[in-house]
Specification:
It contains nine helices and seven strands; from the N terminus they run H-H-H-H-E-H-E-H-E-E-H-E-H-H-E-E. It has helices at residues 4-8, 10-13, 18-34, 46-55, 75-82, 95-108, 144-153, 178-189, 197-204; strands at 63-67, 87-92, 113-117, 129-135, 155-166, 207-214, 219-225. It has a seven-stranded mixed β-sheet with strand order 3-2-1-4-5-7-6, sandwiched between helices. Strand 1 (63-67), helix 5 and strand 2 (87-92) form a beta-alpha-beta unit. The radius of gyration is 17 Å and the shape is globular.
């Protein structure tokens, strides 16, 4: 598992752009604040999250990356699929969320699950992954496109990425409420209004589709596949 020294090095490897760093710091503050209450809503989105994991078609022994893991609500389901011979590596920028995720791992004795505090746009790994998951996390990152590119670099050819995320209503009468939806997302999760999750996914991955929509389209599941090796 990542050490505290590695966690402290996160800020040293972040981008120097002021707006980027300001957004990153707001995200840390917001998610540190919610870390003590996240357990109360752990069942929220659970069927959607589990359906997204199903779409990854994980197998025993797979190596999986989770970006923006929060307190680790997806760990148990992923571990059920990859078994003890697989490996799950998770990343989150909130120190409190990382602490909660590590407590979950230690309480269950999962030796093949680890969490590190890192910026998803800059974190690098020694070995590639067979699949990746980003659950309610990409849209709050300060540079969505760069985060998607980093995930893609971290995957083996042919690997899948499953995303669960939120957005303003894309169509229909609910669009009249989009200004309120935007403000809520911004307040609750430090949502990045300049980040285009779907557009970034389609630009970076060879194939990408919206697999499911929920809540009048304000929540969606996307599945992307990296080009297989020639």
């Amino acid at each position: 598992m990542a050490t505290e020294q590695q966690d402290k090095a996160v800020t040293e490897t972040s981008r120097s752009d002021g707006g980027y760093e300001a957004h990153l710091e707001r995200s840390r503050t917001v998610w540190d604040r919610w870390s003590n209450y996240y357990g109360q809503s752990e069942k929220d989105f659970e069927p959607i999250r589990e359906a997204a994991i199903d779409r990854l078609a994980l197998e025993p022994g797979d190596r999986v990356l989770e970006m923006g893991c929060g307190p680790g609500v997806n760990f148990e389901r992923i571990r059920e699929e990859i078994g003890e011979e697989g490996e799950l590596v998770a990343v989150d920028y909130s120190p409190e969320m990382v602490a909660n995720a590590r407590e979950r791992i230690e309480a269950r004795g999962w030796e093949n699950v680890s969490v590190q505090r890192a910026d998803a746009t800059t974190v690098a790994f020694d070995d590639p992954f067979d699949a990746a998951l980003a659950s309610l996390s990409l849209s709050v990152m300060p540079d969505v496109r760069r985060a998607v590119e980093n995930v893609s670099r971290s995957l083996v050819p042919g690997a899948r990425l499953a995303i669960v995320d939120v957005r303003p209503a894309p169509s229909g009468p609910l669009r009249v409420l989009n200004p309120l939806i935007w403000r809520f997302f911004r307040w609750y999760a430090n949502w990045n209004p300049d980040g285009d999750v779907v557009g970034s996914l389609e630009a970076v991955f060879d194939t990408c589709e919206i697999a499911d929509t929920h809540f009048a389209g304000t929540a969606f599941t996307a599945l992307c596949t990296k080009r297989a090796a020639d």
